[in-house]
């Protein structure tokens, strides 16, 4: 079994390091040759891991995880064909939704990622969790078996749509307000901001319902309860990206829901406003 993890960032490096414990030949694949330092959670001994460039891969891979930011996916897709074969299982370990439509290979699956970490230059720090939720299919069942002896936990879902949409809604609320507010979760102390956050999520729920998902006001309450547990200083990926002047994963979070709302003729004034401001920012790239 040959395994490759594309995207030597926070998520990809964690997956590759953990798979290497049972499958030492697992490759961490990046744009160029490199060596990264990996700092596991709880201050365990750090490790180093090599990054292999695409051109150094000599054997087609049986399993490929893709863990780049969603706006980087296009460049990965153009480099896939020489390193995979007809039966390769492709796991998209990314936030957002709608990316699978762009992958022209049949055995591709969207994962819902619960792996938390951060990359700074050549240092990758893993904070917590090793979990990937995937649609339950014969192929993903095989993959689950394969990861049995590793820390990577694959949860097979009968209704993956619900799991994807729930995370999408969690990201929709907090990423929107922290990106536009250019501040951390402490923004939620303001009742005005909480109202806006609720408004955006309720619009997202209306779109999810149009898509056939069984979400309601209890979904909103459960998401707001998750936010209450966030420490004041916690930023989101969109907050860090916007304050560092980097592109945002907005087209696969706000943009995806916005386009679905248009399709179903659902009025989403909060989402339209957020999407307009984020699009104006994103247009510089
Ligand atoms: P990240 O740290 O930015 O890692 C992405 C890596 O992929 C970077 O090292 C990037 O290199 C590399 N890359 C870019 N284009 C590439 C290409 N064509 N081929 C190979 N490598 C390429 O991102 P991340 O935080 O791991 O996030 C990955 C996905 O997981 C995102 O969708 C994110 O939303 C999601 N997620 C992240 C977390 C988290 O805690 N980090 C949690 C849950 C979900 P350059 O930097 O040089 O471009």
UniProtKB/TrEMBL annotation:
Gene Ontology annotations of biological process type: pantothenate biosynthetic process
Record's GO cellular component terms: cytoplasm
Keyword list, A-Z: NADP, Oxidoreductase, Pantothenate biosynthesis
Catalyzed reactions per annotation: 6-phospho-D-gluconate + NADP(+) = D-ribulose 5-phosphate + CO2 + NADPH; (R)-pantoate + NADP(+) = 2-dehydropantoate + NADPH + H(+)
Pathway in which the depicted protein is active: Cofactor biosynthesis; (R)-pantothenate biosynthesis; (R)-pantoate from 3-methyl-2-oxobutanoate: step 2/2
NCBIfam families assigned to the protein according to its UniProt record, in alphabetical order: apbA_panE (TIGR00745), PRK12921.1-4 (NF009542)
UniProt-recorded name of the protein: 2-dehydropantoate 2-reductase
Lineage: Bacteria, Bacillati, Bacillota, Bacilli, Bacillales
């Amino acid at each position: 079994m040959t395994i490759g993890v594309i995207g030597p960032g926070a998520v990809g490096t964690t997956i590759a390091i953990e798979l290497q414990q049972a499958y030492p030949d697992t490759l961490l694949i990046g744009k160029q040759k490199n060596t990264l330092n990996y700092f596991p959670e709880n201050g365990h001994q750090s490790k180093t891991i090599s990054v292999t460039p695409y051109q150094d891969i000599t054997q087609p891979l049986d399993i490929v995880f893709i863990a780049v930011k969603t706006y980087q996916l296009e460049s990965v897709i153009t480099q896939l064909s020489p390193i995979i074969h007809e039966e390769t299982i492709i796991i998209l370990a990314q936030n957002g939704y709608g990316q699978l439509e762009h992958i022209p290979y049949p055995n591709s699956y969207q994962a819902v990622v619960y792996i938390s970490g951060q990359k700074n230059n050549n240092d990758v720090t893993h904070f917590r969790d090793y979990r990937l939720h995937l649609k339950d299919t014969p192929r993903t069942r095989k993959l689950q078996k394969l990861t049995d002896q590793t820390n990577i936990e694959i949860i097979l879902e009968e209704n993956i749509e619900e799991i994807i949409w729930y995370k999408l809604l969690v990201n929709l609320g907090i990423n929107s307000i922290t990106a536009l507010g250019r501040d951390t979760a402490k923004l939620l102390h303001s009742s005005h901001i909480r109202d806006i956050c609720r408004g955006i999520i309720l619009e997202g729920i209306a779109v999810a319902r149009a898509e056939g998902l069984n979400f309601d006001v209890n979904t909103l309450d459960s998401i707001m309860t998750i936010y209450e547990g966030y420490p004041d200083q916690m930023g989101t990926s969109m907050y860090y990206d916007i304050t560092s002047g980097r592109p945002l994963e907005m087209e696969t979070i706000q943009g995806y829901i916005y386009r679905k709302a248009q399709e179903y003729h659902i009025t989403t004034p909060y989402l339209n406003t957020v999407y307009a401001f984020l699009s104006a920012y994103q247009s510089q790239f």
